[in-house]
Amino acid sequence: MTKRLSRSNQPGLPVYPERMIQFGEGNFMRAFVDWQLQQMNNQGLFNGSAVLVQPIGQGLGALMAEQDNLYTVLLNGIMQEQTVNSREIIGSVSRVISPYEDYAAYLALAEDDGLEFITSNTTEAGIAYHAGDALNDAPPKSFPAKLTALLHRRFELGKKGFVIIPCELIDRNGEKLREIVQQYAAEWQLGDAFAKWLEEENTFCCSLVDRIVPGYPRDKAAQLEAELGYLDNLMVTAEPFLFWVIEGPSWLAEKLPLTEAGLNVVITDDMTPYRERKVHLLNGPHTAMVPLGMMAGLETVEDVMNDETFLRFVKELMNDELIPMLDLPADELTSYSAAVLERFKNPFVRHELASISLNSISKFKSRLLPVLLRYQQERGKLPELMTLAFAALLLSYRGDRVARQDGAEVLAVFDQAWSSPGSFVQTILKNDSLWGQDLTLVPGLSDAISANLQKLESTDSRAALTQVVS
Ligand SMILES: NC(=O)c1ccc[n+]([C@@H]2O[C@H](COP(=O)([O-])OP(=O)(O)OC[C@H]3O[C@@H](n4cnc5c(N)ncnc54)[C@H](O)[C@@H]3O)[C@@H](O)[C@H]2O)c1
Ligand SMILES: O=P(O)(O)OC[C@@H](O)[C@@H](O)[C@H](O)[C@H](O)CO
């Protein structure tokens, strides 16, 4: 029987001291941040590992422990016209702590002077304030509240702060995280000295991440395990492309020598242009294609790209509705969108629409809604393709056509709204907690959503698309 991946059957793998706390043990972080730690370690530039913290109760801690926190990253794709098919065991994760099972171990991280960095990816839903979290909860529910408790313990011990680099795909992620931490600090009455320490001793950076990480290669797992010679329940596939923009002080480049290791990382004082380009032109089309594609029975991004109608939808969405609303030189946007189409077509990765669908409501809010609103304001009409995708998303949250994956609170809002179909559109568009504003005030939106819902109910999503693509 093939043995499970472990340090005992991979002798000689170095063990690195813990230098980073990472909230989130999902596929993305393991194939992005931890993979990059590994590249720096391979070159003798960092000598550090990450200790991972599960942001929610359910997680991969037990599976990671079963294989000594080792896992394989498989990079598959075309880079500079060369085919890349690499595999590497990542040994730069020390352990996974679940604050739900061992809160003392979590808080004890504050004691370790070797820990200098904090990274996170808790999905777009994670950097959020949760009313009712308290300092003495073990643990508090939200990620920012957990972080505040850890930072406060660190402060009480009189130690230095951290460089904090969130990777969530929300605008100004570092600032948002800092604001919520400050909000808890004020609400929990942690005092002026802590507020000062937070401000002066910690560096909150905003960051933008870019790498497509489809995750566990379910369809090829058995074949890969035979090739690798070990069982690995945490294998993760990713594209070779990687880009990380960190808005932070220039001294960070030396402290975290990512660029020195040859990684495609930019440390800058203004990440705005990079962010707009990526979130709207890559993540936007992903989120738009998910409900329509899933309702048409498509399973992967590649399926979408190989379907003539859907490909036209993606291209027209980019060219006619997204690019004209972005404030960047046209040639940069066109070349980026061409590269994105290439990456979407990557024949080596199976990027499931279902996996992209996780927390689609907050994704729509950050990836597409700002552009939809800008389009309406500038042109006095709604962008047809984005509006159809929005209606499809709302329909998909009825839960009867495709599986929904979102937080219990979001699903409850939809269940409640769908229980009165006649008033569904008004109720849902008005919901400030979903959209951060009352969308019934957007001229024409309620009517357009109602009309598109009817269309999607009476035909299928492919037929609805055929009516709007040229
Ligand atoms: N997979 C990719 O291609 C990719 C690329 C770039 C960015 N990302 C980002 O990474 C995030 C996670 O993607 P993944 O592929 O690792 O998914 P995953 O399902 O493997 O991991 C999800 C992670 O988010 C945490 N999480 C889920 N819901 C949460 C919540 N409500 N509050 C706090 N934490 C929560 C989980 O504990 C887990 O650590 C995405 O939302 C996205 O922002 C992913
Ligand atoms: O990772 P998610 O679930 O937030 O979103 C799915 C994709 O849009 C996303 O993962 C992209 O592939 C990624 O952002 C590319 O860098």
UniProtKB/TrEMBL annotation:
<keyword id="KW-0520">NAD</keyword>
<dbReference type="GO" id="GO:0009026">
    <property type="term" value="F:tagaturonate reductase activity"/>
</dbReference>
<dbReference type="Pfam" id="PF01232">
    <property type="entry name" value="Mannitol_dh"/>
</dbReference>
<dbReference type="InterPro" id="IPR000669">
    <property type="entry name" value="Mannitol_DH"/>
</dbReference>
<dbReference type="InterPro" id="IPR013118">
    <property type="entry name" value="Mannitol_DH_C"/>
</dbReference>
<dbReference type="InterPro" id="IPR013328">
    <property type="entry name" value="6PGD_dom2"/>
</dbReference>
<feature type="domain" description="Mannitol dehydrogenase N-terminal">
    <location>
        <begin position="19"/>
        <end position="258"/>
    </location>
</feature>
<keyword id="KW-0560">Oxidoreductase</keyword>
<dbReference type="Pfam" id="PF08125">
    <property type="entry name" value="Mannitol_dh_C"/>
</dbReference>
<dbReference type="InterPro" id="IPR036291">
    <property type="entry name" value="NAD(P)-bd_dom_sf"/>
</dbReference>
<feature type="domain" description="Mannitol dehydrogenase C-terminal">
    <location>
        <begin position="270"/>
        <end position="456"/>
    </location>
</feature>
<dbReference type="InterPro" id="IPR008927">
    <property type="entry name" value="6-PGluconate_DH-like_C_sf"/>
</dbReference>
<dbReference type="InterPro" id="IPR013131">
    <property type="entry name" value="Mannitol_DH_N"/>
</dbReference>
<protein>
    <submittedName>
        <fullName>Altronate oxidoreductase</fullName>
        <ecNumber>1.1.1.58</ecNumber>
    </submittedName>
</protein>
